[in-house]
Amino acid sequence: MLEVDNIFVNYGQSQVLRGLSLRVDPGEVVAVMGRNGAGKTTMMRAIMGLTPARAGRVVFKGGDITKSPTHRIARLGVGYVPQGRRVFPSLTVREHLEVAAGPGSGAGWSLARVVDLFPNLGERLGQSGAKLSGGEQQMLAAGRALVANPALILMDEPTEGLAPLMVRELGKLVGALKQAGTPVLLVEQQLTFVLKYADRVHIVSKGRVEHCCSPAELAADADVKSRYLGV
Fold first, then answer.
1. How many domains does the chain have?
2. What is the CATH number of the domain that holds 85?
């Protein structure tokens, strides 16, 4: 489904990714963890064409998208829930979901289905993005990606700054995606969230993948957790 093959990404003279490689197979949730500054968000931006790789390849459904513009990558079926939510403050909840809606090739997500998953959004369809709480904005960012019906979803730090109740709501989403067979690439700091929902875990350090394992193996490996995650 997605293959990131030995990519290098720079910001000016600063090299952030140094030969990072991973893959996401159909129907699986792949988590990426690591300390702040390891290159996780840069990896997501490279996949989406926002900060293209200067070397290496990004392949989606067999096609090379390394140098493709972001709008084309989205049209090919890659959904993106960015870090920091990035909702439009002047658009209502309904407008966010209607503008982003598309047939795609995903699991038949619609405005009604998103509202069924996140009832809080249904109660606020007429409210602007600026008036939503942080947790509601995260739900909206996720719903906006879903209604495009992508074949793959990238989620960058979705639980960041959220109360436990909202984290559980996001867990419902990841569970629904797994049930529907939609693959997810998940950058996440909360170890308990990753251990519950991921099928495989990649640990990133200094711009490359240093370790790959199952959630059960990560839970049992105190050395890896201490060395790369600080827990």
1. 1
2. 3.40.50.300
Backbone angles phi, psi at 164, to 5 degrees: -55, -35
Task: Give the number of other Cβ atoms within 10 Å of residue 210's Cβ.
Answer: 15
**Interior/surface letters 122-151, b for 16+ CB within 10 angstroms, e for the rest:** eebeeebbeebeebbbbbbbbbbbbbbbbb
Are the C-beta atoms of 26 and 78 separated by less than 8 Å? no
Amino acid found at 49: G
Asked if the structure places residue 231 within a domain, the reply is no
Give the model confidence (pLDDT) of 85-127 as tens digits.
678 888 999 998 888 877 655 567 888 888 888 888 889 899 8
CA 79 to CA 142: how far, in whole Å? 9
Tokens describing residue 157: 């730090």
Return the exposure string of 68-87: e unless at least 16 CB atoms fall within 10 Å of the residue's CB, then b.
beeeebbebbbbbbbbebeb
Phi and psi (nearest 5°) for 223? -65, -45
